[in-house]
Design brief:
Blueprint lengths: L1 H14 L9 E8 L7 E7 L13 E6 L5 E8 L2 E10 L18 E3 L12 H4 L1 E3 L4 E7 L3
Length: 145
């Protein structure tokens, strides 16, 4: 009888959202290729194409000191979905990828899937990846100019 009541309670709570059925996912990013150990490396996680890859106000950001040519960024408690990551090596402390008058980056950058198209910025769909529920995903992103 007690077992039946406990099972009924758990099932009811799960149905109404009181007990999560799945835990959140995580993305660990290994960033390599920084040519200087000065400055910071910023990782921007985008849950959609809005702002990707240069408008970091549309993303969740993590900034880490540059060490040994790179760093790691870790995003936790993420729901399942489609994401893309943009990474920048900020040498002057303004927390953005500086560009020249043509819009070409002057600081090293990279995106998920290590997409590097010629003469244009990468698109969200090129850098996008799917994150499943309960998944711990590891990405390797290489910086370059």
């Amino acid at each position: 009888m007690k077992r039946h009541l406990r099972l009924t309670f758990i099932t009811t709570c799960a149905f109404f959202g009181a007990v999560p059925l799945a835990t959140a996912s995580e993305i660990m990013i290994d960033v390599t290729g920084a040519t200087h150990d000065s400055g910071q490396i910023g990782c921007a996680l985008y849950a959609g194409e809005a702002g990707f890859p240069m408008d970091s106000t549309q993303s969740t950001q993590i900034w880490q000191p540059t060490e040994n040519g790179g760093t790691q960024c870790r995003f936790t408690d993420l729901p399942a979905g489609t994401y893309a990551v943009a990474v920048s090596h900020d040498l002057n402390g303004n927390r953005k990828t500086d560009t020249n008058f043509l819009g070409i980056p002057k600081e090293a950058w990279g995106v998920s899937n290590n997409v590097r198209p010629n003469l244009r910025a990468p698109r969200f769909d090129e850098a996008a990846f799917n994150l499943a529920a309960d998944e711990n995903l590891k990405l390797d992103i290489t910086l370059d100019k």
